[in-house]
Write a structure and sequence with these properties.
heterodimer, A: Udp-n-acetylmuramoylalanyl-d-glutamate--2,6- Diaminopimelate Ligase, Chain: A, domain 1, 5 helices, 34% helix, globular, B: 143 residues, alpha+beta, 29% strand
Chain lengths: 127, 143
């Protein structure tokens, strides 16, 4: 789903990345903790979150997420907006709750990344 | 390469991770390996930001093997087994409300790293040493 379809579905306001709305969100996920984003975030995922500070934008950057939507009518802090501009990470804000925002995207066929299967540790080469 | 990390200002967390990612991509490492290193580095960096006075993250790349050493001056960890338990956190309530201290930091590090070692001295600081190498292609490389 393109980001411009996301903002329409979520009644969202674009704070950063007005020129990046053709970017494709291949999956979506929701989390209110940076560690959780780091756990399941994958390239191309759209993040829905109640977090408002810069580190969640950093997480989105290093994981190559498609964009970030801040929910519940919250506004991201100035440090988050500034970093999003620096790293060209689309940043949006929507009035809906996290649950409702997810539902609005899910019924439009945008689903989450697959569950992460357990990966046994591999021996070191030459071990 | 080595990056300084300040304690206390956890809103600055992620700079070392972002820089690490840039270096690893420049070195031409596989995206899946880079992702694991960066996730683990970000967690280690957040721990320093939240809990320590100051610290450093050292990065070494040798062919396709990566070593990350995160070392800090700070309170240290009295009970490492407890600290490693998923969900356990001593982060402040304020930090948690803002999305930090989920208690999944060490779990994420251990999941991403191919070797993980932690040593700590109460009143002095903590050192986390992690190594990474490519995992076979047949395995899940991320949804």
């Amino acid at each position: 789903m393109k980001l411009r379809e996301v903002i329409e579905a979520l009644d969202a306001e674009v704070l950063v990345g007005q020129d990046l709305l053709d970017r494709e969100a291949t999956t979506a996920g929701a989390a209110d903790a940076v560690s959780d984003v780091l756990f399941f975030g994958r390239p191309g995922m759209l993040l829905l979150t109640g977090m408002t500070r810069a580190p969640m934008v950093r997480a989105a950057e290093v994981l190559e997420l498609a964009g970030v939507v801040v929910v519940r009518g919250k506004r991201p802090d100035a440090d988050a907006v500034q970093l999003a501009r620096e790293v060209e990470m689309p940043l949006m804000a929507c009035p809906h709750s996290l649950y409702d925002a997810c539902g609005r995207l899910y019924v439009r066929q945008l689903s989450g990344p697959l569950p992460v299967p357990h990966r046994p540790r591999q021996p070191a080469p030459g071990e | 390469m080595s990056y300084p990390v300040l304690g206390g200002g956890f809103f600055l967390a992620g700079r070392a991770a972002a820089e690490t990612k840039r270096r690893l991509r420049e070195a031409g490492l596989a995206a899946e390996l880079v992702r694991r290193v960066v996730v683990a580095t970000y967690e280690a960096e957040m721990n320093i930001c939240i809990h320590a006075v100051s610290g450093r993250i050292h990065l070494r790349v040798e062919n396709d093997r990566v070593k990350v050493v995160a070392t800090d001056r700070g309170a240290g960890i009295a009970d490492i087994a407890q600290a490693l338990r998923p969900g356990f956190s001593t982060a402040s309530e304020k930090a948690r409300q803002l999305g930090f201290g989920a208690g999944m930091g060490f779990a994420n590090m251990q999941r991403c790293a191919d070797s993980f070692r932690i040593t700590s001295e109460v009143g002095c600081g903590t050192t986390v040493t992690m190594e990474f190498w490519p995992r076979p292609q047949t395995e899940e490389t991320g949804p």
